[in-house]
User: Fold these one by one.
Assistant:
Number 1:
Amino acid sequence: MTGTLVEALEAAKDVDGAVLLPPTSFAAQPGTCVVLRGPNGAGKTTLLRLVAGLTAPTAGTVTLDGVVADERDAATRDAVAALVGPPATYRDLTLRDHLTLVDATWGRDPATCDERVHAALDRWGVTHLDERFPHELSSGQAHLFHLSLTWFRPARLLVLDEPEQRLDDSRRLLLGRLVRERCAEGTTVVMACHDPAVTEAVADAVVDLPDAT
Ligand SMILES: Nc1ncnc2c1ncn2[C@@H]1O[C@H](COP(=O)(O)OP(=O)(O)OP(=O)(O)O)[C@@H](O)[C@H]1O
């Protein structure tokens, strides 16, 4: 079995012993997009954190190409790019600097770094903001920057928590196109989404989480 497999999963329980996620199982094949749906508090973010290996389940398993997902494991970090909550950014680095840093982290050729950084910002329509610092962006611009950072690192699995949030209609269409583009390149995408139009545009499969209340 290749791809991302989520089996008989139950997330970590909270301090009162309450289960944060109903029993859930699904498989996401390479090149496909699975969308998690459900009302506020249903457990979408919790499930995404488990899929990305950011949290360990108390029951069940999450495997990526047969290996248990664990962000402390280099194999998971190589495989996964996750945007679940805002990523760490640095007040003293511009958008361009952030991408240049990621580029260097992944050992890419410095001679061609500028081209890749330009293309990464251009993909999300934020090239004109390349000399801004993160705190000089609107919330939607910051989100587009976070998406460009997420897209920039190599990944076989993209994990995205409500990536449509704060985006205007044209950027939601762009998001749909870019998710489909990544799937066509063979990347697996697992994402939570509240927008039916975006879901319709990107989903190969949908996992519905029931209302937890
Ligand atoms: N850090 C935490 N400590 C305790 N309970 C938490 C924590 N984070 C989330 N929960 C609880 O876990 C359950 C699932 O929350 P989660 O954030 O996964 O839902 P969600 O489906 O992503 O919701 P939303 O659509 O509002 O983002 C909720 O009952 C929530 O209150």
Number 2:
Amino acid sequence: MPPLAVFDLDGTLVDTAPDLSASLDHCLAQDGLPPMPLDLVRPHAGHGARAMLRAAYHHFSRPIDAEGVEAHLPVFLSFYEAHIADVSRPFPGVVAAMDRLEGAGWRLAVCTNKTERLARKLLEELKLVPRFAAICGADTFPAMKPDPRHLGGTIERAGGSAEKTIMIGDTLTDVAAARALSIPSILVDFGYAPDEAARAGASCVIGHYDELTIDLAMELFKDR
Ligand SMILES: O=C(O)COP(=O)(O)O
Ligand SMILES: [Mg+2]
């Protein structure tokens, strides 16, 4: 069975924050609010549209309840779907890192808390779909990350095994899912929420995909 590298999507594989931020601004404008600065959106960009809406209304000291958030969601998501790859691009060096892994016989997969449909649309527009043995979203299985069933289901669909899998992610959500299955994890510290708990829980932290070599990936299996 070939080794498998499972990538998180937002903040790990693709820098999606600018298009997510534009969708948020579209919602804010409907309420007469100004755009939210991108650097304030980024820490929330990996936690879904609801988290971004809550953070923005909090930032502008505008109370918003759960119902208010739900009311904005369709507006956010339809704008986002139409603009999903306007400026979102793979992070520097990730395509070369995937080439290295594939060249060494690794399989690749995506395990994201985006819905599967949006994840596929984004990856299709970036012409990355054929690289992945599985693309599994928040709604692919009955549970999503950090629930290990999401990562476990992704591995199964990709034809891999937990013993020969590594997880690459940018938040504690990814690291926790990996740990629950005793899978080594790489935290990318250029992502959206590489907090202390995520750093402490990850098997290693990288600051650029150039550091994701086959030697590093193989080394991770040794401390499993
Ligand atoms: O959209 C989200 O909630 C987060 O997506 P991710 O799991 O790809 O970071
Ligand atoms: Mg992420």
Number 3:
Amino acid sequence: MTLLSVNLNAVAQLRNRRDLPWPSVTGIARVVMDAGANGITVHPRPDERHIRRTDVYELSALLRDVYPEAEFNIEGYPSDDFLDLIEDVNPQQVTLVPDDPAQATSDHGWDFLGQGDFLTSVVQLLQRGDRRVSLFCDPDAGLGGVTAAKATGAERVELFTGPYGACYGDPVRAQAELVALAETAAAALSIGLEVNAGHDLTLENLPAFQLAVPGVAEVSIGHGLTAEALLVGFAQAVRAYNAVLR
Ligand SMILES: CC(=O)[C@@H](O)[C@H](O)COP(=O)(O)O
Ligand SMILES: NCC(=O)COP(=O)(O)O
């Protein structure tokens, strides 16, 4: 069974269009947890363009007090600010991503061979707090890449599924991406690394991913799931507004 962690970045981005408190990030967190999600993912970025530091504290309190079984997964580049936030909030999982602050979104995994020493020191620091550490991993990292990832001491890698997600409408390229993802996942599992996955997974591309890449512990999904929520929720919202107007 693969667990679902819902990424609330997109909800926060919508909230930030106005100086108003809706959609409420913690309110939507309650909805997704009540609907059966296993946890919440956030990727606070230095410019706070979506998730704000205050959201991280509020979500942490909500999950601790109301959903103690839930996993809080915080993603980001291990800057001093990020590591301080992790110390304060102590989430169950930290996913380290090699983001530059100027990046529009995450678009590659770690260079495990080149940055092994740096990652090892950060992983050791994070594990003092008894948190699971997951490292963002290119889909074609292969056995060499995941072996170097394991040497850092991290318990998991998160497969970057963005290139697969970008193959919508192109089944041939999608199949090639799935082969790379499956090989890297199998290599990771074979050396005792657990495997997460995420980025641009959707209702459409998830079934083929599930079939091709067995053994994934957790997927984190935000953009596609939020788009789906708008699609299924808009009709009900229009009916509710019409009920007031008529
Ligand atoms: C780590 C990762 O894959 C990303 O999906 C990330 O969490 C999304 O970040 P943005 O929402 O800022 O694009
Ligand atoms: N860790 C990946 C993740 O949270 C995916 O986010 P999204 O691409 O589905 O928005």
